[in-house]
Design brief:
- Strand 3 (about 65-70), helix 3 (about 75-85) and strand 4 form a beta-alpha-beta unit.
- The protein has ten helices and eight strands.
- By secondary structure, it is an alpha/beta fold.
- It starts with 11 loop residues before the first strand and ends with a helix.
């Protein structure tokens, strides 16, 4: 039986950065699926699999399955087909996988017979990378120009949106067009800016930049009282 994608469209996505299911559920049981969506990354997916996702969907949550597919086109096609039965709200692919891989990802979603639409979001650059890191892997241009090149690929393949570090959003927004959405990870309060994320912004800036979706992870999940921190972020966002 296919789980239908909720008609809710939460703008705030909680990244479940847990390897312990009980700790994750302690947070999940205290947040509202009408306000928050949940992100399942590779750690939780590898440990707990599809059954865990279905459980969260039954609780009413929209799921962003963030596996960042990046492989040859045939492999990506089959991988996305294999998770299509979950009918999650959103999945991610690396845009740098190239035109044919992106087309295969889109085609795999279109093969899915359910009428509800899973959003296909393209990763531009990771929030842990700065200009010296991208130079190390042979990207000889500014990060914002690199993102713009990837943005054109995303548009060519009719992706639903891009995943982009917040500090570059204003530079690329005028090139987005009407339909492409922006998802920004690495949201931190001013007092919580000291981890391995190099390209981060505050909730206030996310609101100012009119970003469609934001992801909040370790800024709350690493704490003993994550709900209190989440409430602070929610107050800062106010009417996000």
């Amino acid at each position: 039986m296919i789980t239908k994608i909720s008609k809710k469209n939460p703008k705030i996505i909680i990244a479940l950065d847990y390897s312990n299911k009980k700790k994750a559920m302690k947070l999940i049981n205290n947040i509202d699926p009408n306000v928050y969506a949940l992100k399942i990354g590779i750690i939780m997916f590898y440990k707990f699999g599809k059954i865990f996702i279905k459980k969260l969907q039954k609780l009413g949550f929209n799921i962003f399955l963030d596996l960042k597919f990046h492989d040859i086109p045939n492999t990506v096609f089959k991988a996305i087909q294999s998770i299509s039965e979950l009918n999650v709200w959103m999945i991610s692919v690396h845009i740098c996988g190239g035109l044919e891989m992106l087309k295969s990802a889109k085609l795999a979603l279109n093969y899915h017979s359910c009428n509800n639409k899973t959003l296909l979001m393209g990763v531009t650059t990771l929030t842990s990378l700065d200009i010296s890191d991208t130079a190390d892997i042979g990207i000889n241009m500014s990060i914002s120009n690199y993102i713009l090149k990837l943005l054109k690929l995303a548009q060519t393949c009719s992706l639903d949106g891009i995943i982009c570090p917040g500090k570059f959003v204003l530079k690329i927004k005028k090139h987005l067009g009407k339909n492409l959405k922006i998802l920004t990870p690495g949201i931190r309060l001013e007092s919580k800016l000291n981890d391995d994320q190099k390209n981060i912004i505050t909730p206030n800036l996310a609101k100012e930049y009119k970003i469609n979706y934001i992801v909040i992870g370790r800024a709350i999940t690493s704490l003993k009282s994550p709900i209190k921190e989440l409430e602070k972020i929610q107050r800062e966002l106010n009417s996000f």
